[in-house]
Amino acid sequence: MKVNLHNKVFIVKWRHPVLESGIRITECSVKAEGWSETVASTRCSKKEQFQKDRGRKISLARVLKEMRLPKQERKFFWVEYLSLKKSLIEA
Hints:
This protein has helices spanning 52-67, 71-90, and strands at residues 2-5, 8-15, 24-31, 38-44. The protein is an alpha+beta fold. The protein has one domain. The two termini are 16 Å apart.
């Protein structure tokens, strides 16, 4: 996913690896030129049903919190995420 903010393009990527213990995690990374890469993750316990969408939302919220962006700027990421999600559903 790409987000344009302050004349910079932020690249947001997700991964859904399975740990050796069998626990599934969702990892979100955000990177832009001139910014260090920021990564946050969430894990699903063995008792829960793994849901990629829920993991993406939680990990995105965590990475944006880590980046300490104001609410007004975080909104750009959420609008882009929701449009991406909508296009995936329609496909």
